[in-house]
Design a protein that fits this description.
The complex is a heterodimer. By secondary structure, chain A is mainly alpha-helical. Chain A has two domains: 149 residues, no CATH class; 68 residues, no CATH class. Chain A contains 13 helices and two strands, in the order H-H-H-H-H-H-H-E-E-H-H-H-H-H-H. A two-stranded antiparallel sheet of chain B has the order 1-2. Classes of the chains: A mainly alpha, B mainly alpha. The interface between A and B is large, with 123 and 104 residues.
Chain lengths: 266, 330
Amino acid sequence: MSKISSAITEIHRIEDLQKRDQWLNRIHPLVKLACTCFYIVCLVSFNPYDILGVLSMGLYPLILFMAGDLSITDCLRRVRIVLPLVCLIGIFNPIFDRAPMLLFGFAVRAGFVSMLTLIMKGVFAVLASYVLIASTSIENICYALSILHLPGILITETLLIYRYVGLLLAETERITQAYSLRAPGQKGVHFKVWGSLAGQLLLRSMDRANDVFDSMSLRGYSSDFRYLKSDIRWRAFDLLYLAVWCCAFLFLRNFPLFEMVGSLFV
Amino acid sequence: MHMADALVAPAVAGTMYLCSTGAATYSVKKVRDMADPKKIPVMGIMGAFVFATQMINFTIPGTGSSGHLCGGMLLTALLGPSGAFLTMISVLLIQCLLFADGGLLALGCNVWNMAFYGCFVGALIWQLFMKGGMTRGKIIAASIVGSVVTLQMGAFSVVLETLASGITELPFSTFLLAMQPIHLAIGAVEGLITAAVLSFVYSARPELLYCSDASANENRLSVGKTLAIIGVCAALIGGGLSLFASSYPDGLEWSLERVTGSTELDAEGSIYEAAGSVQETTSLLPDYAFKGSESAVGTSFSGIVGGAVVALVCIGGCTAFKFYKKVRTA
């Protein structure tokens, strides 16, 4: 599958997840956004050598993936985008940080431990963001951002780009498919047609923007959108959800949960 | 060049959010001042266009690889710096949410590294080249120089932000030598592709390009204003990143260590003890670390057992919750 086709498929798959009638999807978008951001802040603030502390933060995605009926395998595909850069930067730690350290009873280089925690932090942050986007539509995230008084222009832009990204991806796929059929066996677009191929699409997009503006004006567009969602209401459960998770993150950040529980058994 | 959440420390991310917010506030004001309602849909569609065309593989002659166009520079040449900057923010937000390309916490860094340099510094370069009229040669030169310079600045910022976050043990010079040359090549290729697209636009619809008509571009970016923004942000970054000072002793500590054998002087007396206790209680970041961050490395056996028990409890709880929901709906 081409890069463009897989991007279109990914957008449709996430939209299907967002439309599910799940308890997680019904939570107020601002609560989910705040929870995710607070989780990531707590996660990345861990000491680079506190491997069990970082591991304990994996409970949040674990619980939400299970209770929210989300597929971990679908999400792991997203991790492959993040992992190369994180690994590339982390892989030098064992070379430069050679101080000895005990990890599960084995003597290892401290840099190896910091590399592992870095990878875990990268993976958990992606999982947490996935929980947010799989249960909250872009419109609802924009609604949450509007409550936080983000400028209307930015919200409108985000909504418009999201609205047209699928359309333009489909058009780009048609163009590249037509090109590859006329240039069989050729990898990518030849440099002689770099300008005309993307340029044609650009000019058509500009014309489309004018058409979009005309149709928006006919429907009463006046430089601002109304985001008020009548079906999104604050519930006591939303506040409870936020409070419980925030307390849990603070607890995990400050106390070694795994060791505390383990000491009860060992 | 998208940074992941794991690569930034909260203080660095916060500082970069602050810098990006400053530039965004300026851009929002500029776009509002233009009072052109048509601009908003054009910005939206152009954002989607950049998103889509960045997935086209343009073959680089003589190599087996491919590249894609430079979004920041292309948008600047079509929308001007402020419009391009706001569009790039939205593109980066959607990329981070939908495709995990970048992170929510690292969004401020990514906006700064890719959108700020690409749009504001790119606009200055574009304006500099277009002085005295627009020609195809100038467009090609501006696109290549703009892409190379802005990408180099972005890569340099990635190095600074990663090192300031204490993520890597790589020495500054080694990291810089690894990042800059590769981005020089990427910038040159992206510049060539962007130049090809903008040359096509110039021959077909030149009026769409920024600075194509001197009288129509009253909202040109001034060098002074851009330098002022960079100056304020440099001060913010300096202040924010100083939280992550080197763990090596500074000059004074080094001298003290040579004289007394310790980097700190012992001070005895009730006043010192009282002051020390107040400082201990009130300091948010004692010795530049969050309280309790010097906790055990957590490598004991009880930690492993505890982890397994907690994971089992969570999995059991979630399974029971799902079973309860199924029974309730049945």
